[in-house]
From TrEMBL:
<protein>
    <submittedName>
        <fullName>BQ2448_5518 protein</fullName>
    </submittedName>
</protein>
<dbReference type="InterPro" id="IPR027417">
    <property type="entry name" value="P-loop_NTPase"/>
</dbReference>
Amino acid sequence: MDGTIDQLARLVLERVPLDHRLLIAIAGVPGSGKSTLAYPLVDAINAKLSSTSSTTASSTPKTAGILRARTNIDQETELLDFRAQANDDKITEGSAAESGEAHHDQIAIAVGLDGWHYSRAELDKFPDPNEARTRRGAAFTFDAPSYLAFIVALRESIPSTTSTTTTPSSFTIPYHTFSHSLKDPLPSLHPITPQNRIIVIEGLYTLVKEGVWASATTRMDLRIWLECDPKVVRERLLRRCLKEGIEDTVEKAQQRVDGSDMLNGEWISTRLTRDQDLIVIESKEDVRLVTLGP
């Protein structure tokens, strides 16, 4: 895992502008390992920036100095191979790291698209509430216009962190996280601030080329897609469904996975923006435990 994350982190740091945020989208079908890639990547980026800042002259403004000290990468890799290793750490769903709260004061932070789920109360107001709840996770159960507004706000120019002409709250951007215990979105404890210069957004629809989603996709600076065999994804989803107590029998788990998650995956895959700039990562075996392959 460390080799792949390090390679991506160096690529990210090559792209950071001085007056705008760098936006990175990580997408994939359900069970492909989006959050498992996003949060370690953020940790690696911040670690590199912290290391760089220790060698920056004290006379240089903090953020600008860090971002000017770009790292180099020999070659951009468009296809990275993820394979299992027995002793790597994994992200626990619903943890502070996954919600993004743990990195609110860092230059790089991760934001999950799950924060734009419609709440269960909102789903109950849909024309067919039963379908909306059953298909929760499908594109129509997300507040896409609100998500686009968030991305547009992130794209605005940001002031220097040393500026004395604005108050800290002038350029903050609120957003929502998703509470797995409450099964609904909640306001983040910490808004996006000018200090947050690199935003990694992970979620099912962050690279979709249709409707409102497409407007958000075109505003991304780096686009990463996790490619995964449908059979592997289905097995992961079934294990997760049973392990986390979402369903209590194999039959119910199969109905949920086949009637929702796999359908969402097919919908996403046919609407992916595939071009020469897309970074494709092949997700193999258990994506929670990964390393760079040969």
